[in-house]
Give the backbone structure.
Amino acid sequence: MCAFGSCATTGGIPGLANLGSAAEILDYVYEDSPSSTNPDHARPQPECEVPSGRCACLISGETVRTLDQVVEVDYLVPGCPPQPERIAEVVDQVVDILSNGKPLPPRGAVLGAEARACCEECDRKKDVKKIKHFVRPHEVVLDRKSACSSKG
């Protein structure tokens, strides 16, 4: 079994759901967020009737877990998403192992990762920037002229 991508290997963005309860998250998403308009208080239903029968939908539990917290995982392929070049390297490594009888990497090995992050390979100018504060989209009017003229 291979955990593929950051969500499967480390929890990624979905893992942030562990900062609140499932009920708190559903309340915020469907009713309390500034962008929610839900006068009927509609929520996802665990089951519903469809033309072909009964459909059961997964409703989130109380904890988001990584794949290896649920089942045994042999290998981890990080990335959000894993870069195509890294995926190709993993496939090449598997083909080499199968074709030449080489031993498998040890269980729990991270495959397709380099010693440096993707950001470190980027040739874009990296000025140190300080974030002064955060605003939600509904709190500001975007100045598209200045937003589109900034270069990074």
